[in-house]
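Progress against Task 2.4 (sequence-to-structure conversion) is shown through the following example record, which the project officer requested during the mid-term review.
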Amino acid sequence: MRKPYDDFAGKLSRRVSARLALIEAQYNFDLGDEYEVALCEVLADILPARYGVCRGSLVTFEGEQAGDDLIVFDRMSYPTLRSSIAPGFAVKEKVPVEAAYAYIECKHRVVIGESLDGSDSLRTAVEQVRAAKRLASGRRPNPNDDFKAQAPFTQRKRGHWPAYLPETRNELFGAVFARRAEFAKGVTSMSGIKIGGEHAPDLAILGDDLLLTPSALLDADGIKASLFFSSFGYPNLRSETVEGAAIGLGLLTLLHAIGWMELLPIDYGRVLDASFADAVFGRRAGDG
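Structure tokens generated for the chain above:
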């Protein structure tokens, strides 16, 4: 079987791994910030021009915040200040949640234990993604009009399949990206790692070889997957050993997800009204 586009996924994995290795040789990734910046640089090269990438937090109109790593946002609707303040993704942004396509929690290294609770770094990353997705779930939904047209709802024999696409087209995509992953002493598989529940990550890239996605092995039906965890219908992400292709497959999944999404515009009129009122009446109240 021929590999699509002359092994595009494999070449992407090798290209990104080589780029990160080169940056790591220069900076050693001793600090988490250095790895975040390196991954920002890589994603900025890969993502189409309409998508921006920055380090920082998601923020709501009311000022609630979540996340502290990488955000893929709509460059057309939200101009960040990064390039005018400091080069190289040094400045952390606060991105309006309405402008965010994806949140990525970065880890240079994770040690996989017997369970998620016994895998401290991975557990922390999962919870950070969960918090970002929970915050984004409060934004005004953009319904997926074709949700009920999918096989699980239209074909009786496929009712046990997960729906591939979610009910809304602006659900935040959440991912964990670990540059390196290794098993703790005495642990030989991912069988004890259960990542699921409300607002669970949609994807985890663990080193070069491990990929976790919302997919299930359904006997004779084979592997069936969802693009987002919310439409999966099964309790946990499924792990797969993919022999050096995890980064490429994971980034293709990210591109596929954000390419399908449709964000609703930021209500700049609401922002203007609140900001104008604060500037006028807030100052007067202070003067009194």
